Each structure stands twice: as structure tokens, then as C-alpha cells.
User: Fold ATP-binding cassette sub-family C member 8 from Spheniscus mendiculus.
Amino acid sequence: EEVTESDDEDNLSSVLHQRAKMPWRACGKYLSAAGILLLPLLVLSQLLKHTVMVAIDYCLARWTSAAISAKTELELKNCSHCGDFNHSPYSKVFSILCCLGIVLCLVTSIAVEWTGLKVTKKLHSSLLNKIILAPMRFFETTPLGSILNRFSADCNTIDQHIPATLECLSRSTLLCVSALAVISYVTPMFLIALVPLAIMCYFIQKYFRVASRDLQQLDDSTQLPLLSHFSETVEGLTTIRAFRYEAKFRQKLLEYTDSNNIASLFLTAANRWLEEYIGACVVLIAAVTSITSCLYSKLSSGLVGLGLTYALMVSNYLNWMVRNLADMEIQLGAVKRINGLLKTEAENYEGLL
Assistant:
């Protein structure tokens, strides 16, 4: 019995370790199917887009600081007949950056959708060729529903969900990195607290991904009985009224609803906990360092506002980054399952494909 208990503990620890790991092999398989040209285009367009977005915010901060400084100088000199501040250079640079940002957003969206389409076509054609040339023992040992599920649900996930999640994940990650970079540029003292914050965020997201995936699966598993019971109740309403079982079916429906609401409540609470806990720390540290730098280093008000604005948005960016990472981890399971079928040995066949 002691040996059995120890084996169970080892199996449980290995399962938990596998749940905490990111399926990097499936991610590499997905990205390698995109090709040599599309992958650099996707990465470069994302980097350029977020660089331009940060440049737009920085231009606005400089514009605001220059306008405030010019107005303050005029008030100190009591020069009412002097010329107004020249907004023309800043407005031209701002307009050019906005147009460039719109073009890069379009290029990024096209690159993401094009990548998803190419990966889906390549994996689907490879899977179809493998299944057609598979030996008979494969069909005798593999359920037909499992094969159909690879061509329907998994291909649908790769076609529709993974490109959107990949775009959201890259966007939230780059936004989070750019926000931390801007805060560090405005207030270099923030770099002292950035290292412990990064370590804390790493362990929190590692714990959160497992909990979020389990809560999402619990939400899905409790929603199915609710929908099935409601459908059965509507279809058999005449029989239920004939046997006077309305109260029994109503009570059962309320129990299924409570179970699903509990799972949804825990999932929402976990997401809010992740957002508020880390975001509050970042906002507190950024606010203290910005105010200190403004008082002692004569930091401009525009840059202080820029740093605090990005600090307020870091919590939202971190939340979306971890949630998209958890969604990507779940969706990459489809690539992993298809990749498992692609390893099937084909029969010796020399005919036409």
C-alpha cells in the first residue's frame, strides 16, 4: 500500500508539472508551418506598430509640456502682446505618426490572418495525406469520432481561434513591455523595483495559468448539463406537466445554474485578482518615483502624466497577457493532437496522391 501511495503521488506531481508547462513544441510546430517569410513579417510589423504607438504618446507628452512651459513663461513675463505658441511642428509630426500607425495596424492584421490561413492549409493537407495513406490497423485501433474531431474541432481552432489569440497575446505582451520601458525612461528609479516585480509576476502567472485553465474547463463542464437539462425540459414539457414534476425540474435547473454561476464567479474573481494585485503594486511604485522625480529633478509634467498613464494601464495589459497565454496554451492542444496523428506511419504505396 505504501508503494502504491508513493506511485500515486509521483504520478500526481508529474501531472501537475506537465500542466504548468507551456507546450513549446506545439508552438514551434505552428510557427514553423507559417514559413520563412511570414514569421519575420509578423514579428517586424508588431514591433514597428508598437514603436509607433509609443512614439505617438511621447510626442503628445512633449507637445503638452512645451505648450505648458510656453504659457508659463508668458505669464511670468506678463507679455500679453507676445506671439502664441507654435503648434505646427508638433501637429505635423503627430499626424505623420498617426497615419503610419494606421498603415502598420493594417499590415499586422493582414500578416496575422495570412499566417493563420497558411498554417491551417498546410496542417490540414498534411493530416489528410497521412490519414488517406494510414494502414488498416490505424482505423481499427482509433475511434472514428476522434479522427473526425481532428478534422472538425481542432482544425476550426487552428483556423479561427489561434490567429486571434496570437495577435492579442503579442499585442498585450508588447504593450506591457513598452509601458514598463516608458515608465523606466521617465523615472529611472523604477528599474530598482522592476526586478522583484518581474520575479513576482513570473511566479504568479505560472500559478494563475493552471488555475485559469482548470476554472475554464470547470465552467464549460458545468454549462453543458445546464443546457442539456433546459433543452430536455422544453422538449418534454407536456409530459412534465402531466406527471406534475414542475417543481422537481425547476429545482434541478436551479442547481445546475448555481453550479455554473459558482464556476464563472471563481473565474472572474481570479482574473480580477490577477489584475488588481500586480497593477496596484506597479501604480504605487510608478506614482511614488514619478512624484519624487518631479519634485527633485524638475521632470516635465507631460512626461509625468505619460508615465502615470502607462502605469495605470499596466494592470490591464498584464491581465490580458496572462489570460491570452492561458487561452493559447489550451488552443495549442489542437496542434499537439494533430501533430500526434502526423507521426502515423504510412503504408508502402506508390500510386498517385
About this structure: The CA atoms of residues 275 and 350 lie 58 Å apart. Confidence is low (pLDDT under 50) at residues 1-18. The chain has ten helices and no strands.
